[in-house]
Amino acid sequence: MDKGQNGAQLSRMTTRPFPARSPAEMVGGLVHFGRMLDKIRAHANGEIPADYIPNLGKGFDGRSVRFLGVSYDDLVARVQQGGTDDEILRWAFAKGRRPSEEEMEIWNEFMRKCGWRDNISETLVRRKKESGLTERDDIETMFQYIDADEGREL
After folding, report:
1. pLDDT value at position 9?
2. Rounded to an integer, what distance in angstroms lies between the CA atom of residue 31 and that of residue 24?
3. Could you give the CA distance from residue 29 to residue 67 in angstroms, rounded to a whole number?
4. How much is the pLDDT for 16?
5. Crossing angle, helix 33-44 and helix 72-80, to 10 degrees?
6. pLDDT tens for residues 114-149?
7. What is the DSSP annotation of the chain?
8. Which of 146, 154, 31 is nearest to 89 (CA)?
9. Which residue, of 48, 66, 90, 102, is most buried by count of CB atoms within 10 Å of its CB?
10. Which residues of the chain have pLDDT under 70?
11. d(CA 111, CA 114)
C-alpha cells in the first residue's frame, strides 16, 4: 500500500487515478448524483478503473435513479449528450420526478448513513477488509469508506 502525505496507509484505490467526487458532494441538493455523473463520463472516456464497471448503474447508482424515477440507461444517454450537472439533474426531474425538499433531505440522510448498523453493514466490513482499512474505526458508513478508499481524508 502507498503512504499518503501524512504517512498513513492509503487503500488500493488511491494508486489509480479516478476523478470521481465524494458521494457526499451535492448537485441540486442531492448527494451522490454528481459522483454518478462522474463515473458515467469516466466510463464513456475509458478512464474508469475496471473494478468499477460491473457495478455501474447498481448500488447507490441504482438507488439514485430509482429515487428520481429515471432509468440508468436513459441517464447515460443524456450524459453523453453533454451538459452541466445541473442541466442533467433538471432533465432527470422532468423525465422522472422532482422530489420535494423534505424528500431530498430524507434521501440525503439515508444515503449518508448507509452501512451504519443496517443491512449494508456486512458489505462495509468486507470492503474495509479488502482495502486494508479494518483498523479505521472512524469509517462507519459507505460514504466514509468510499472517501477513505479513494484517498480523501475524512
Report:
1. 32
2. 5
3. 13
4. 41
5. 70
6. 999 999 999 999 999 999 999 999 999 999 999 999
7. --B-TTS-B--GGGGS---PPPTT-EETTEESHHHHHHHHHHHHTT-S-GGGGGGTTSHHHHHHHHHHT--HHHHHHHHHT---HHHHHHHHHHHS----HHHHHHHHHHHHHTTSSSTTHHHHHHHHHHTT-TT-TT--SHHHHHHHHTT---
8. 31
9. 48
10. 1-19
11. 5
Note the pLDDT of residue 18.
65
Beta bridge partners of 3: 9
Which three three-digit cell numbers place residue 102? 423534505
Angle at which helices 59-68 and 33-44 cross, to 10°: 120
**Which set of grid coordinates corresponds to residue 94?**
422532468
